[in-house]
Amino acid sequence: MKNKIYLISIVLLLMINAVYAAATYGSNEYGFGKYGEGYTASSSPGNGGGGGGGVGGSSANVVASSVVISNLLSGAEAKFSFSDDQSSIEIINFITTKDLKNIKLEIIKLDKAEVEKNTALLPITFVFKTMKIEPTAFDNAAIKGEAQITFEVDKDWLTNNKVDKKNIVMYHFTEGKWKALSTSLTDEKSAKYTYVANTPGFSYFAIGEKEGVRPLTSTPTIEPTPSSSSEVGEQQSDLQPAETKKSAVTSILPIIIVVVILLLAIGVYFLFVRKKD
User: How far apart are CA 90 and CA 187, in angstroms?
Assistant: First the structure.
């Protein structure tokens, strides 16, 4: 009988120890336990590439848009129209120097830090968008003269950063350095200005306030936008379930332990004491 009681006592202690260990060191999606890993808010790529006055957006490489043209004869106009405004590019067109088949242009949205990592430091502080324009099945030699890039800039961005609409320039990374492209303001819409820049080829590009208008050391100041506030709100809401869940589990742990002990005690009583009687 004594051996059975000792055995039951050992089992009881082990179970209590297991419950305590689970409560203290347990780890899962919501971070149960004192040392468990907590819930991490997920982030999604935001619109705007390297926008926000030099403040980078998503660091992931995202193909904002791509267009394929099947066949072009030498001397014909290649015109790529883009409908996705993540890169702010509307149209890219150029005259071909040779026959081309199944050519494609991809606009890859990048943030400012990613672009500078692959090129060199930008000579400007206030950057609206940064990107890479990547050709497939043709190279820069297939462009006669220069290609034209039509792009848009949000009026809100200009206002928030105190940038004059006449000081917007597109920069192109070529021959190991950033070069300002010839850029013209061509149209105005309700919320955007339209510009056209001329480029001899495609690689990395940046849109922003032209060099020399303000010192490079200026710190961009951005007023909160509805989209950025929404993203912050989403991240906070992502974290709330973790805190609530963890708090609830912590508060009921003593009750769970007491209930387990009582159930085991009742089981031992009925199994041995009542049986003996």
Answer: 13
What's the one-letter identity of residue 262? L
Amino acid at 91: I
CA distance 47 to 32: 35
SS (H, E, C) 203-247: CEEEEEECCCCCCCCCCCCCCCCHHHHHHHHHHHHHHHHHHHHHH
Torsion of CA 164, 169, 170, 175, to 10 degrees: -150
Segment 18-62, tens digit of pLDDT: 555 555 544 443 333 433 333 322 223 333 333 334 333 333 456
The total number of residues shown for the chain amounts to 277
DSSP type of residue 194: E
| Token pair recorded at residue 34 | 């004192």
Rounded distance between C-alpha atoms, residue 69 and residue 199, angstroms:
20
Name the pTM for this structure: 0.58
Strands (E), the chain: 62-72, 77-81, 89-96, 100-110, 127-136, 143-154, 168-174, 177-180, 182-188, 192-199, 204-209
